[in-house]
């Protein structure tokens, strides 16, 4: 268990691949901190890939925020990246 944890976004979500990459740099520079995020920004393929890369970092967890509006899309992304998202 890591001594520090940070939830990425208390309010808001990822808005671009470039923004996700900025978070990736920040997370990689802080290996003693655990990061996690919820997201609904998984509709477009480039965003999916960047979010999967972020969630695959050893000190980061990604949780897909799924409800009745995006249920099918969320399941498809979850299946596309096995073991990456929660």
Protein model, in words:
With 86 residues, the protein is of the alpha/beta class. Helix content is 38%, strand content 20%. It contains 3 helices and 3 strands; from the N terminus they run E-H-E-H-E-H. It has helices spanning 17-28, 45-55, 71-80; strands at 4-8, 33-39, 60-64. Strands 1-2-3 form a 3-stranded parallel sheet, covered by helices on one side. Helix 2 (45-55) links the parallel strand 2 (33-39) and strand 3. Helix 1 (17-28) packs parallel to helix 2 (45-55). The longest helix is centred in the first third of the chain and has 12 residues, at 17-28. The model has no long low-confidence stretch (mean pLDDT 95).
Short note summarizing the structure:
The protein is 38% helix and 20% strand.
Characterize the main sheet. Answer: 3 strands, parallel
Write down the secondary-structure element order: EHEHEH
Report the C-alpha radius of gyration, rounded.
Answer: 12 Å
How does the helix and strand content classify structurally? Answer: alpha/beta
Q: Please give the order of strands in the largest beta sheet.
A: 1-2-3
Ordered list of secondary-structure elements with their pairings:
Elements: E1 4-8, H1 17-28, E2 33-39, H2 45-55, E3 60-64, H3 71-80
What descriptive keywords fit this protein?
alpha/beta; globular; 86 residues; 3 strands; 3 helices; three-stranded parallel sheet
